[in-house]
Design brief:
The protein is mostly helical. Helices cover 58% and strands 4% of the residues. It is elongated, with a radius of gyration of 30 Å.
Length: 298
């Protein structure tokens, strides 16, 4: 055990306690001290942990570091937490939900290629397999975090003016979609490529609307706006949380050229969820958006 040099008296030296008799002490969290006024420098007592003399101008023992009195004023200025620390501490379920959904998406794509191959006539099987896999994962995540979803599902959301404003905002959004994508298709692909001819893979009628409008709207809105966005808003400012979730939403569509447009769409859906506190306007707007895209492009 360390004993301060040049003790003031033999009594102070003999007052050091046996380590076996010392009570456990947990150090305080890391922080920064403001510059403090110089106070009395003579000993004002002994440390209750190690028995070393305590200086009057300090607030902690110089030998073992245990604090023994509160400094005046604003004593501690904690180190600001980074965004990663905030997410880890205040939204611990965010990354598990994200990685679960991302791994399910990647695994469903890879398994569909392994099972059915890459031929055009099996693309419908790919779509059905991937939709079923993602729907199953969404149901599992929804059951696990149902307390987070319940508040958004019990509100219809259409009693807010923002919900109807959001529906009207689909018109300029679809126009932007056309101006953003159509010149590229005309310049590089000379019209519709084979992957956009859904009739050639046997997909039409109710199956078309289910696989491209209804199921994607339900799955993606529950995953991104129902789970990830509220979780992230618990740790970060609303605007930053919406931007991060929108970027994840755009990135998971695996299209570099469409990323800026999909980022804007993700922010639009995020704004709709935040204003209405409900998933229903987001799901309806998402389904209508996909329906317009199919009608104009596919």
């Amino acid at each position: 055990m360390n004993v301060p040099e040049n003790p003031e008296s033999e009594e102070q030296l003999s007052a050091a306690k046996d380590p076996a008799e010392m009570t456990p002490w947990t150090p305080p969290p890391a922080g920064r001290l403001h510059r403090l006024p110089v106070m009395r420098r003579q000993p004002v007592g002994e440390c209750s942990y190690c028995g070393a003399p305590l200086s009057g101008h300090l607030f902690f023992c110089q030998v073992c570091g245990k604090p023994y009195r509160e400094p005046p004023g604003n004593k501690m200025m904690p180190v600001p937490r980074s965004d990663g620390e905030r997410i880890h501490e205040d939204a611990p379920s965010f990354w598990p939900v994200f990685w679960t959904f991302a791994c399910a998406l990647f695994a469903s794509v890879m398994l569909s290629l392994i099972f059915f191959g890459s031929e055009r006539e099996f693309r419908l099987y790919h779509l059905v397999f991937q939709t079923i896999a993602l729907l199953a994962v969404t149901v599992i995540l929804s059951a696990k975090h149902f307390d987070l979803l319940w508040g958004q599902l019990k509100r219809p959301g259409f009693n807010h003016a923002e919900a109807w404003m959001g529906m009207l905002a689909l018109v300029p959004l679809i126009a932007l979609n056309w101006f953003w994508h159509y010149p590229l298709l005309e310049a590089l692909l000379s019209g519709k490529p084979d992957f956009m001819r859904l009739d050639r893979i046997g997909l039409e009628g109710p199956g078309l609307w289910l696989l491209f409008c209804i199921f994607p709207a339900i799955i993606e809105e529950i995953a991104f706006r129902g789970l990830l966005q509220p979780m992230l808003m618990n740790a970060l400012p609303k605007g930053k949380a919406m931007l991060i979730v929108a970027a994840i939403f755009a990135g998971m569509h695996f299209s570099i050229y469409s990323f800026p447009y999909l980022l804007l769409v993700g922010l639009y859906f995020g704004w709709l969820q935040e204003k209405t506190k409900s998933l229903y306007p987001c799901i309806v707007a998402h389904a209508l958006h996909n329906a317009f895209v199919i009608a104009f492009f596919w």
